[in-house]
Write a structure and sequence with these properties.
Number of strands: 2
Number of domains: 1
Strand content: under 5%
Order of helices and strands: HHHEHHHHEHH
Shape: globular
Radius of gyration: 19 Å
Structural class: mainly alpha
Helix content: 55-70%
Length: 219
């Protein structure tokens, strides 16, 4: 089983590129299709509503495991930072990215995100209630701190191989496209409340807030 994007299954470069792109496309398709409201309405015709989110997470995890398992090595080195100071800084940035992503899951309710809250409520025969739209902590700085953390972690490396570059470039491109779809769905669902939030808070890159900015809520 492959453990990193730098060291996977040995293969000729052409095969490695084709397989890796196919794996990334499968991962992106599963995430985007199953996250759309229309698919959720169709899907809950087959699975109970309380486990809709958890089945999404389960299938996403299986696709991710497949990607890890079948990832092909593309060993050519694109850059290799030699300065220990810069290497340390890049590793620190790498862990900061993962810390940001992990913190973001708890800020928006870690158990809701993975579908566990929905299952527990159903098991206890309690009705499901939306957590509502609110602005807290990281979500006051950017609208998508979880995705920002991923992007930082994917790119912050002192040694960038061709395989790592492919993974970082494709996943970053996918994130930027997927966020447009997600924000369209959120604007449809939440209306002016989310549109105001979108006007006042940047998507991914924090910026100094103007004194006149006032945001009413966040997820």
């Amino acid at each position: 089983m492959a453990h990193t994007v730098d060291h996977g299954v040995a293969a000729p470069i052409g095969q490695a590129l084709a397989v890796n792109v196919l794996l990334l496309a499968l991962f992106a398709a599963q995430h985007s299709v199953m996250a759309r409201p229309a698919f959720k309405r169709w899907w809950t015709g087959f699975v109970p509503q309380p486990i809709e989110r958890s089945t999404y997470v389960l299938l996403a995890s299986l696709v991710l495991i497949l990607l890890y398992w079948q990832w092909r090595t593309m060993p050519a080195v694109v850059w290799d930072v030699r300065s220990w100071v810069v290497r340390f800084g890049l590793y620190a940035l790498f862990w900061l990215g993962w810390a940001t992503a992990l913190a973001a899951t708890f800020v928006i309710n870690h158990f809701e995100l993975f579908g566990l809250r929905q299952i527990v409520l159903a098991w206890r025969a309690k009705p499901y209630s939306e957590l509502g739209f609110r602005i807290t902590l990281l979500y006051r700085l950017v609208r998508h701190p979880l995705m920002l953390g991923f992007i930082i972690a994917f790119w912050a490396t002192p040694t960038m191989t061709a395989g790592h570059l492919l993974f970082a470039a494709v996943t970053t491109g996918y994130i930027l496209i997927a966020l447009q779809l997600e924000e369209r769905d959120l604007a449809t669902e939440l209306g002016d409340q989310y549109r105001q939030y979108r006007r006042n808070v940047p998507m991914l890159l924090p910026r100094p807030r103007r004194p006149s900015q006032c945001v009413v809520s966040s997820k």
